[in-house]
Amino acid sequence: MIEDISAARDVALAAVAGAQTVDLLDQFVAEHLGKRGPLASLKARLGALPTVDEKKAMGQALNEATSAVSAAADAHRAVLAAVERRAQLAGERMDLTEFRRPPARGHAHLVTEAWERLEDVFIGLGFKVAEGPEIETDWYNFEALNMPPSHPARSMWDTLFVEHGAPGSTVLRTHTSPVQARVMTTQEPPIYVVAPGRVFRNETADATHMPVFHQIEGLVVDRGISFADLAGTIEAFTRAFFGSGFTSRLRPSFFPFTEPSAEFDIRRPDGSWLELGGCGMVHPNVLAACGIDPEEWGGFAFGFGIDRMAKEYHGVDDLREMYSNDVRFIEQF
Ligand code: PHE
Q1: pTM confidence score
Q2: Residue 247 forms beta bridges with which residues?
Q3: Which residues form the Aminoacyl-transfer RNA synthetases class-II family profile domain (predicted)?
């Protein structure tokens, strides 16, 4: 019988040692040390032994075998439990690495970036920044700019009106030129200002037009200002903003508030031209309407689209894309 006990113990020890998980280990312990296990059936044979000494000896051997298996199981269970705990912790570990990386930084809107760069360039040329309201009176948007009521030139701008005051008296400014009048009525010459801002026109959006867009206005009022000063300023600005490969040209045009008037184009390094804005010598009627003596002072003004500059600068095909807020588009810049 002692061999049977040793054999049952060794089988049980081997099973316990081979268990890969705590669950399997518990299962093996139950099988080998349980009521229906080999050691239990050996115990059942004790009663049939002939002598008390044999009963005692075999009983002791069975107890020792049982304790040995239990002790081995406990030791192995501790090892398995530690391994399982480690695996569980590793599995539950949260990946916090993304919080440690510096967060990805975005950037200002392409038009805001162009707006700020334009301000920088003009400040570098000696200008100050001025601003005016987006909701404007008819007087500043048109009348002070040499366009009396019903003047046909008003139709150059598809105007959006605001229901405020007398019908037609309040508009969403169609250009930044009313800021010229606001500056001239409040500041003494010499004046060197640029006025960037949002403007509105009753237009359908397409690749090169938006009903809401941005312009930057330039105004100089000083003594002895000539058309050459205007052309030189536009050329200096073109090179400062786009780079030395770019140049500018003026084409005769018409605006009621400048005389003579011109449109100006930017020549790209590949020789193609981009129409950018309008300019001219401030009309004496405008100076007079704003309380500046046209006999003593002269000036020039220009205005052009910031959105178009941003579009050109970044090689964007369609103005509308800049306002789609599509991250895949934005992240390219
Ligand atoms: N305000 C004009 C426009 O929106 C541009 C311009 C500004 C022309 C200043 C001449 C002088 O078309």
Answers
A1: 0.70
A2: 267
A3: 118-310
